[in-house]
Write a structure and sequence with these properties.
- By secondary structure, this protein is an alpha/beta fold.
- It has one domain: Nucleotidyltransferase, domain 5 (2-Layer Sandwich).
- About 40% of the residues lie in helices and about 20% in strands.
- The chain contains nine helices and six strands.
- The chain has helices at about 5-15, 20-30, 35-55, 115-125, 140-150, 200-210, 225-245, 255, 265-280; strands spanning about 60-70, 90-100, 105-110, 135, 155-165, 180-190.
- A hairpin with a 5-residue loop joins strand 2 (about 90-100) and strand 3 (about 105-110).
- Helix 3 (about 35-55) crosses helix 7.
- The longest helix has 22 residues, at about 35-55.
- The two termini are about 15 Å apart.
Length: about 300
Amino acid sequence: MNKLSIERRAAILGSLTEGVSIASTCRMFGVHKTSVLRLLADAGEFASQLHDLLVRGLQSRFIEVDETWGFVKKKQKNVQSHEWGKGFGDNWLWVAIDNDSKLVVSWTCGGRDTDFTNALMADIRDRVDTEPQFTTDGWRPYHKAIPKAFGENADHAQVVKKFATPKETGPERKYSPPVCISCELKVISGKPNMAKATTSHVERFNLANRTINRRFTRLTLAHSKRLSNHEYSVALTLWAYNWVKVHSTVKTTPAVAAGIAGKPMNWIQFLTLMQEEEDRLGRRITDYIPSPKRDV
């Protein structure tokens, strides 16, 4: 990728965060798959490092948390015994969003279990200087994970939505979303402001993520084939969401709205910072070399 101009590399990163697959990006820019995957690996790792460094000291008042299902290589039911431990199968994206700035405060990829719930809440605790109100779905491990990280009196509201199967029975049924028939709000702990108890913003982010990250688009062949590439792609997409893309609600990037950035960043600025870090290290951000024939 060092042989490509910074403008061309910036265009490739923009493509990967606008819902374009790896293969399509290669065809659009006439670049080999290995080069694109190497850039993805370095940029994704650097984006993750920057997020960990810069998303600190937040003054969040309301945080919404949700999980998005995805998978690596194959769905869980198709994973064979000899493939266990390789990261294949179901992989959930855990996201916590600041209600006011729309900033992704914390995220992680992994299983839908108590360990990842606790890890997400512990990471949020490290990033916020306030005692925010949390709104979650009906996932029960939140009931213990939030008090464990923020104390027994942490404000926690729960939104439980019930869905009904659409009435259509034809082929179009496969592409029709379920219909929400009820929405129940509950106080789990503390004294949450129920007027602010909603998961609509984080659910809207889930839609945006499926739109701008091709690996989460349903019914395609663009899903991740390797766990590390999946995590790099998520890190890059969330960096774009927080720092590059202007949010239509806050009229700027979430990072600017949250007060941790002075102005939106573009991909050339990002790559310039990455090059400076590589020069300091004397090597690439990662030593990851994917196989273009098998892994995407």
